[in-house]
Design brief:
By secondary structure, the chain is an all-alpha fold. The chain has 6 helices and no strands. Helix 2 crosses helix 5 (112-124) and helix 4 crosses helix 5 (112-124).
């Protein structure tokens, strides 16, 4: 099989992976992973582990970046809220008035689709147990 046809077969098989399932689009997750590594990993960790002592305020009064893996609380929040935090930063209604955070607003840098893909990547890294607990807590709309 020539390299050209091998590539076509690979892409066709990957596209087929997302069809007929409730899972996320594998291409969206791949794009989200790439964006996460460039834009988010420096603070939230390559493996979504967050910064050490993320629940303890630093001397400047800010909280370190939380983990997005099962050890954190990201999965406790509705996807709409996670999207808003990513797009607009830590501002009301997702944070108290005057809250100061290092979390930038990505609305001017990333498209809505790119933000959704980053969140799809983060969600794809949660264990089946965490996804099930989240589904119980927040049934889909």
């Amino acid at each position: 099989m020539s390299a050209k046809w091998w590539w076509v077969a690979l892409v066709a098989s990957l596209v087929g992976c997302g069809k007929g399932t409730d899972g996320p689009d594998p291409f969206a997750v791949m794009e989200g992973e790439g964006i996460y590594k460039v834009e988010c990993a420096a603070c939230h960790g390559e493996k979504l582990e967050g910064q050490p002592e993320w629940r303890t305020r630093r001397a400047d009064g800010k909280l370190p970046a939380p983990p997005h893996d099962a050890s954190g609380h990201t999965w406790h929040h509705p996807m709409d809220q996670l999207f808003a935090i990513t797009k607009f930063g830590m501002v009301p209604p997702n944070a108290p008035e005057g809250y100061v955070s290092d979390m930038p607003a990505y609305g001017g840098k990333l498209t809505d689709r790119q933000i959704q893909n980053v969140l799809a990547y983060i969600e794809s890294q949660w264990t089946p147990e965490i996804r099930a607990r989240r589904a119980e807590k927040m049934p889909p709309k």
